[in-house]
Amino acid sequence: MYKIIDGKKLASELRLNLKNRIGEYIKERGEIGLAVILVGEDPASAVYVRNKIKACEEVGIKSSVYYLPEQTAQKDVEELVTSLADNNKIHGILVQLPLPSHINAKKVLELIPVGKDVDGFSAENIGKLCLNEECSVACTPYGVIKMLESEKIDVKGKRAVILGRSEIVGKPMSMLLLNADATVTVCHSKTRGLKEICREADILIAAVGKAKFVTADMVKQDAVVIDVGINRDENGKMCGDVDFENVKDKCSYITPVPGGVGPMTITMLMYNTYNAAIRSGN
Ligand code: GUN
């Protein structure tokens, strides 16, 4: 019998705990500030940003949101990031991705000081993650690790297979699992023998962005299946990268979509912002 890992419930428990810690911080050191920059009108990004603002309100972080029009020049985005970098009331800076195609995202992200990089996207934070040093960890993979920990799923010595090698999920996920002593395989669009590799996984993490990509024949009996996908099925209903209904009976644990990894991602952003404030000198 499988168990569903309830990300919504865990996220709300973690946020309550964080709210108390942030309350203590504010009494001693003042407000914690997170700046969020959204360029353009991508509807999915607008929803994510709204949810981030709501989460800030829930835990007591002061959010400042900068909505910039689609045509904003590179220079203007860079100037905004630079001014936030110099503002000691701002402890975290988040530039919502994707940026419009005329903007060089890498150049913008490089202006975020490592201490304010609450997404954990900077070369320095990724390098520290590889070295298993304290750092800001990309929110989605960090949330996945918290979900595994919450169920006391020991990954040591286990075979973990990650589907997807993105900078935001697949790559940092592989490092986190390796740091936790799992044996890690990262698969991607050029991987040969994908099904066979997946069938060896004790822990299978799907982050490919394709609706119901993981089918029952790709899953080992009693595997832990974590679904990072957010897609729409043929009827426009939200679904993950895993064919949940057909896969679930083979699993020991499985995460649903919605209500699985999604709520954890934003919770870990709140954690990263709190930790950035703790580490800051102000
Ligand atoms: N776009 C989709 N996911 C993310 C994320 O985790 N951080 C940022 N900044 N943009 C995103």
What does this structure look like?
The chain has 282 residues and is of the alpha/beta class. It contains ten helices and eleven strands. It has helices at residues 7-29, 43-59, 74-85, 105-109, 123-130, 139-150, 170-179, 194-199, 244-247, 261-279; strands at residues 3-4, 33-39, 62-68, 92-95, 159-163, 183-187, 203-206, 223-227, 231-232, 238-239, 251-254. The strands form three sheets. A six-stranded parallel β-sheet has the order 1-11-8-7-5-6. Strands 3-2-4 form a three-stranded parallel β-sheet, sandwiched between helices. Helix 7 (170-179) links the parallel strand 5 (159-163) and strand 6 (183-187). Helix 6 packs across helix 10 (261-279). It is globular, with a radius of gyration of 19 Å. It starts with a strand and ends with a helix. The mean pLDDT is 97. Guanine binds at residues 94-97, 119, 139, 168.
In short:
The chain has 282 residues and is of the alpha/beta class. It has helices at 7-29, 43-59, 74-85, 105-109, 123-130, 139-150, 170-179, 194-199, 244-247, 261-279; strands at residues 3-4, 33-39, 62-68, 92-95, 159-163, 183-187, 203-206, 223-227, 231-232, 238-239, 251-254. It has a 6-stranded parallel sheet. A 3-stranded parallel sheet has the order 3-2-4, with helices on both faces. It has a two-stranded antiparallel ribbon with strand order 9-10.
Structure keywords:
10 helices; alpha/beta; 17% strand; 282 residues; three-stranded parallel β-sheet; 11 strands; binds guanine
N-to-C CA distance: 50 Å
Largest sheet: 6 strands, parallel
Low-confidence sequence ranges:
none
- Please state the CA-atom Rg, rounded to the nearest Å: 19 Å
What is the helix content?
40-55%
Broad structural category: alpha/beta
**Strand order within the widest beta sheet:** 1-11-8-7-5-6
Query: What fraction of the residues are assigned to beta strands by DSSP?
Result: 15-25%
Task: Give the names of the bound compounds.
Answer: guanine
User: For the residues shown, what is the average pLDDT?
Assistant: 97
| DSSP strand tally | 11
